[in-house]
Amino acid sequence: DIQMTQSPSSVSASVGDRVTITCRATQYISTWLAWYQQKPGKAPKLLISDASRLQSGVPSRFSGSGSGTDFTLTISSLQPEDFATYYCQQANTFPFTFGPGTKVDL
Amino acid sequence: QVHLQESGPGLVKPSQTLSLTCTVSGGSISSGSFFWSWIRQPAGKGLEWIGRIFISGDTKYNPSLNSRVTISVDTSNNQFSLSLNSVTAADTAVYFCARESVAVAALDYWGQGALVTVSS
Prior knowledge:
The structure holds 2 protein chains of 2 kinds.
Chain A: E1 4-7, E2 10-12, E3 19-25, E4 33-38, E5 45-49, E6 53-54, E7 62-67, E8 70-75, E9 84-90, E10 97-98, E11 102-105
Parallel strand pairs in A: 2-11
Antiparallel strand pairs in A: 1-3, 3-8, 4-5, 4-9, 5-6, 7-8, 9-10, 9-11
Chain B: E1 3-7, E2 11-12, E3 18-25, E4 34-41, E5 48-53, E6 59-61, E7 69-74, E8 79-84, E9 93-101, E10 106-110, E11 114-118
Parallel strand pairs in B: 2-11
Antiparallel strand pairs in B: 1-3, 3-8, 4-5, 4-9, 5-6, 7-8, 9-10, 9-11
């Protein structure tokens, strides 16, 4: 299986901060990477697909980059509604696998 | 707007079979543009991909569960289902159904999740 790692595992930030989350795959996955946001008690929400494609309705302060094995999710100016856990997921090879998550809190 | 809703027993006894159904509304499950997936999340932990099905019946499963899991589709009711047999306490989790868009290769619509507890 392709293992996904994320760093940091948690980050404390303030409104207006720039936050960067890194995701790394143990094998080459091209750009078959998605980012999700999950709030407590809710289902994950797709933010970005294909490593950098912002989903419709997702604020432009979210951006994704990377290819191969190293990827980043950036929130350019953190808003109160962005406090959540973020997961990356590879869709290059079965079984699809998720990173362990990065919790963004105050 | 596509909506997915999980349903099924919230409590299953050890060694028995966990069965969940996902009802899709706002779109046809017979569309060739989507896969229909199951993901689970134990309390306080991360996400685990269980498997997916295409309308043709083609399935892919997580090898960690492969021998115990079956995903099926019911086009007449616009539903797809998960069956996981020989469950143990380790299978206790919130189970999500989701749609994977072929176009974006990502899970773009999710159900709200169903908590299934395995306990005697």
